[in-house]
Amino acid sequence: MSVRFHQLAESDFDELAAGRAGDDLIHRLRATQLSRRMLALRAVMDDAARLVPDAAADSGLAHSYGALAAAQQARPDTVAELLTSPGFGLWTMYCLRRMRGTVSSAVPIAGDLAGLGALAVVAALRTGIDIEVTLFAWQGELVLPTVGRHRGVLAGWLRGRVAGGELTIHARVPRPGGVTRMRISWRSESGDDPGPCGSARSWRRVPALRSEMAGRGIDLRLDFVDPVRHHLGLPVSGDLEPEMIEQWQRRLDDGWRILWQRDQVAARALAAAVTTIFPLRATDGATELSASAGDAFGAVAMTLPRDGLSCAAALLHEFQHNKLSALLDLFTLCEPADGRLFYAPWRADPRPLAGLLQGAYAYLGLTKFWDDERRAHPDHRYAHFEFARWREDVWRVLIIMRLSGAMTPLGLRFLDGMQAAVWAHRLATVPDEPRWLAAWISAESRLSWRLRNLEPSADQVVPLARAWLAGRPAPADLRVSARVQAGPRALPRSIQLELAHLRLREPKAFQAAWEGVPGALGDDVPAAEQAHALGDLAAAEDGYRARIAEDPRRLDAWSGLALCAWESKAASARTLATCPELVRALHHAVEELSGRRPDPVLLSSWLPASSAHSANAGPGL
User: Fold this and answer.
1) Which top-level group of life is the source organism from (predicted)?
2) Local structure of 187: helix, strand or coil
3) For 174, what's the count of Cα atoms within 13 Å in the CB-facing half-sphere?
4) Do residues 418 and 18 make contact, with C-beta atoms less than 8 angstroms apart?
5) Bridge partners (DSSP) listed for residue 278
6) Which of these, 43, 302, 315, 614, could form a disulfide with 290 (CB 3.0-4.6 Å)?
7) pLDDT at 515
8) Band of the pLDDT at 490, cuts 50, 70, 90?
């Protein structure tokens, strides 16, 4: 197997920087990923021989590699498709980590390495060559990547022989009184994708989803079978029943129609890149979730979307990540040694610069998506809101990155392209209500993040608390430093965001709430948040203050109170509106020293206005 050198034209680089890409450019990026996978496979072979030679021998790794190479000689394109499958990318990188001791598993390491034999079986079935390789069935399950899983009576070490389109599996070491052999015939069901015959009840195929518009389609594997998906560290779904698979097909049909109608160039590019969905299960903290991984180019991990619009947005979002990850395999855009953490509007936890770039690029794509959607449907208030929110948040993040001093010359050129695209969006007109709601939610996100992740210096806060208790004024030249102390990664519930979505999507519910209908906004929405959403700042502020007086650990109350201060623009609450973590830390210090809980609004008014800009929260705040 040979690896070739790759070049990317300047025009291609600039096209990617602007968030665009045609399917021809995606095919060139996919070719670079093939080389990356082949290099990773070579590293697996070398590390196995050097670090775990006994496991390499037990797994038949070298023989499986030879079988895969023979299949590549027979039909290079077919094997290239297998090598660029997302699961193979996850497998190679997991094996490297496993052999180097950074991850562990109950599965014997030789069993993990035997995954190459399973891939060689699929390659042989698709290319028509005859091979015999070592396989491993963990807990009675044998997985053939991209095809399916057999769950049967054979377990442990097996031999798999492909001859004449038929796979025969038998126990490597015969067991007295046990089943030692099974035979599975294969037929081509679509193109050269083999499928099992004669043992359907023991097999779970990887379902194939396809959607078409105007003769152009997208083909995706809905892979709930391959165990490598667990290496994503996400709440992956178990087996899906036919009814659920049909729901996925309907969501994809609706999502593909939207993608095609809005931007056919982008839709074709997405279809050229994304080949696999790893379904996720909804959790209490995330009913809708999507993710991707640099090791798994071509994959989107996502929960079942609520509708076609959510499906289209999730696919496009993760497609952006896939594009940028492939580009970052070729170029260094930011200094890898920069260890600083930054505020990202789309995350609850602080992010390194590389993560900030990934998020900004993904939301650059979504900004265009929502712009296309609102232009197609001018009355779509939610689309206006999403467009207005992300164009401003992405713009702020791009400025943070540019000022970080850690972008390489190529990275700065990439930012130029992104900023030009966002600037054009910022010139567009947005109706008042969704534009104001977007600013409101952005402020809530920023204030909540500060409360969760910034820790003002105790050496400075405690003297301030003593001054407050002694009735002395705060220093006029107050400068309080703060360090980033990452809070929980899980995104906290934002009732304000939920209510903003409700206001945009179900205006009748909000009208009913304004008219005093009990429970119109939901039975689980606290009174303070209801008052806030309906514009009664005084009632909302009273509710948040009462909640803080009862339990100062309630970050939702502090966030709500800070948002009231931001909204009122009162000079006396300026510190609370910009550096709520300082007011909260001072509140805690006063209570620790005196046993009393002061009024947070009075504390904020006591602090000088200059302190609102003095907390050193790191870049981006």
Assistant:
1) Bacteria
2) strand
3) 3
4) yes
5) 301
6) 302
7) 83
8) low
